[in-house]
Write a structure and sequence with these properties.
single chain; mainly beta; 2 domains; 1 helix; 16 strands
């Protein structure tokens, strides 16, 4: 178990806090201050990265020209070939967890290399409604415990503690838990 509050109190700007046994899934911690450059708009031709805002206000690139704002406990998605970037334009530090997959998640910053997409939607949610799942090709975010706990991370959004388990846990009535399950690597 890792106490994210302790990590956020430290001067740590970046840390890999978890990696799956197959090395295809990682959880990365970032602290971005307003004087930092952040992570400019980019896309991943083969991978994904999604971010959970732990504290602060994220200005999130949803194209090379547009942005949205996400706040504490919001989840933003960076699917394969979708433009996204991370910035903090506030005085308070921004703390985020980034769920990145696969192992070699190449980032491309050149707009001319972006393939043409039929669906240009970028989604953001404020809080997962009870019993709802939100999934990408590689990750499932859910407010209810999964049936299979292999490759599952549990984040308590209130206490800001994160744990990894491969075993079934007793169901509790804590509505502040977010279950992150990594799908098997795509072959």
């Amino acid at each position: 178990m890792l106490d994210l509050k302790e990590l956020m109190k430290s001067k740590t700007k970046f840390k890999k806090i978890w990696e799956s046994p197959c090395k295809n899934h990682r959880v990365l911690y970032f602290q971005i201050n307003n004087e930092d450059n952040g992570i400019k708009a980019h896309f991943h031709p083969y991978g994904e990265d999604h971010a959970l805002i732990l504290e602060g206000e994220l200005t999130y690139d949803v194209s090379f020209k547009e942005q949205i704002v996400a706040k504490k406990s919001d989840l933003v998605f960076g699917w394969t070939n979708y433009v996204h970037g991370y910035h903090n334009f506030n005085e308070k530090p921004l703390h985020i967890l980034v769920f990145a997959t696969p192992e070699n998640n190449l980032s491309v910053y050149d707009q001319s290399e972006l393939p043409i997409q039929n669906d240009a939607n970028i989604r953001i949610i404020e809080k997962l409604p009870k019993a709802e799942n939100l999934a990408s090709n590689r990750v499932i975010f859910s407010s209810v415990p999964p049936k299979d706990f292999s490759n599952t991370l549990i984040i308590d959004l209130e206490s800001q503690k994160i744990e990894y388990t491969q075993y079934k846990m007793d169901k509790d009535n804590n509505n502040n838990k977010l279950y992150i399950t990594f799908k098997l690597p795509i072959q």
